[in-house]
Every structure is written in C-alpha cells, then in structure tokens.
Amino acid sequence: MKRAAAVFLALVMLCFISVTHSEIASDDAEALRSFLQSHYGVTIRMGDEIHDFPLEEYELRVIPEGKSVFLQTLEGNSRYTGLLRCLDDVFSVYPPEFFSRFAKKYYFDGLRFLLTDQILQDGKRIGGVQSVHSGSIDIYLAKDDAKERAIHHEIWHAMDYRIRSDDPQAFDGWALLNPEGFAYTGDFSTIRDEERKREPDDWFASEYGRIDEYEDRATIFEALMLKDEAWWSSRPNLQKKAEFLLEKADPIFGKIFAGE
Ligand SMILES: [Zn+2]
Fold first, then answer.
1. 23 CA distance to ligand 1 centroid (A)?
2. N or C: which end of the chain has fewer CB within 10 A?
C-alpha cells in the first residue's frame, strides 16, 4: 500500500513537471509569435486557430497519423516553436518593411502564416502552400516539412500573387525567356523526389520549375535566396529570368538584395 502511494505520488509529480515544462515552452511559442508579428508585420495563426481556413484539394492535419491526441494537446502551441524560430531566421534576411508591402488598400491586410502539423496533397506530405482568403494572402506551413527553402518558395508565390494583383499582365513576357519550343508539363505528379533534387540545365533552377510558370519563378526565387554567386555565374539564361522576376517585384517590394 505504501509503495502504491509512493508510485502514485511520483506519477502526480511527473505530470506536474511535464505540464509546467509545457507551459514554459508554450510561453516561448507565444513570445516568438508576438515578436514575429510586431517586428516583421505579419500575422501568425497556429494549430487549432486555423480550423476556419480549410484549403480545397489539400488535407490539413493538426493531429498527424500515429500521434497521440493527448500528447498533442499537452504540447499545445509549443510544438510550433522550432518552425517559429526557423521563420525568424528566414524573415531576418529580407529588408526591413518587406513584409508590410503585401498589404493593399481595400484588398489585403497583409501576409499571414498558418502553421499546422501536416499538409497532404494527393496523400503526399508537402512543406507548404500559398492561398488567398479575403483580407489576407496566406502561407500554410507544415511544422516538420517546411524548411528554409520551402518558406522562401511560398513567400515568392505570395509575392507573385501580390504583383499580379496590381498588374495582371506583369509576367506576360515570361515565356520568351524559356528555350524555343519549350512547354511546361503542367503535371505535379510527374515530378518525383529524386528529380526535384537533380541539378537542371541553365534554363531552370530545379526540375520542379518545369511544371508551370509559377513553380518556375518560385524555384528561381529560392535559388536567389540560397545559391551563391559561383552557382549563378555559370547560368546566364537563368540569370535573365531572375532579373526579369526582380524587375517585376521592384515597384512593390523594392530591392530585396543588398547591391542589387
Ligand atoms: Zn510552389
């Protein structure tokens, strides 16, 4: 009896310690969220807060398959702390005021990030997806699948949308920058993971960019943010596409790179 009481007491203490620890970690997530929102001028929603913003054609999972509902609830928003830290690292390389440029009078309040646990497209896990709801341009991110590259990629999709909201013809001349006779595949299912990683020729930043012009530009923007000068200097045709893209971004977003 005495031993059972001791075990019970130990269990109660363990639960108390876990809950206290989780509350501290949740405070970290809240502190990070409020810093990111006030410092960069974005809106961030996470976990249960994004139920009102479903995405057609995608499944958003707050409880990933095989995960305990109990642990998920106990962890609360603290499970997004890693992704929030990653957002801070990524945001910090953009110029000051960059994120406030997404706002547009009578249309958008600005850029909003919706953090969830998993995003599935045709049953396959993806890092992120960009969408629009009235009042905001949205970027959905999955906590274990959205890394630095995916975040820059979705930020470009949001920029692309914002640029075309001012000038629907902004990218009309884009096709002229591709090799003669080239046609986009238009088919997301044709791209396998190994193809996505393969180094493409001079005209594309990634094999994924051959799907359509939106993915083409998003993968070029990723490369602008992540690849060094040596990588770019051997790709003159891709450079022309990058210059065109930055020229179209300039009226709204200004210079994104120092020395550009
Ligand atoms: Zn994309």
1. 35
2. N
